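Worked example

This section walks through a single chain of length 154. The input is the sequence exactly as stored; nothing has been trimmed or padded.
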Amino acid sequence: MNIRISGMVAVMALFFVNDAFAQAMEATFFPTLFWENSVNLGVMLIKPNEMLVLDSKGNKHQKVLTAEGVSSVYISPNGQKLVYTTRTSIWMVELGTGQTQLVAKGDCYSLRWSADSMSFLFTVWKTIQEDSSTSRFKLLWADGDGKNVKQVYP
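Given that input, the structure is written out below as tokens.
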């Protein structure tokens, strides 16, 4: 009987240790560098909601704070604007002034600027049913100011 109880205690201890380890890993943050090709500026995500804009010589230009954790960052080819995504929305920051505006709500997984920085395309994912993995995506277009958002597909 004591062996059975010992075994149960050991299994429970392993469960709690494994659960604590998984929670600690979820809370772990790793700084990330976002740098677009042929752009002289990049962004280092130094905290989940804090970005540092750097140039190719390592000079610090601007700190950008967000209300929510950042998923991805995209700098316009002309280096004047920055678009960042979170789990719930897409935001644009005017570099220099720091003015921020909401572009769209939703999960964004890819974004591409036009070469002239006059527009960008991005995808937004929407879960159809909360209890399933069924989802649908939309391809959207926005002008370079993040306004005039139009659905391109479907």
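What to look for: Residues 6-18, 20-25 have pLDDT under 50 and may be disordered.
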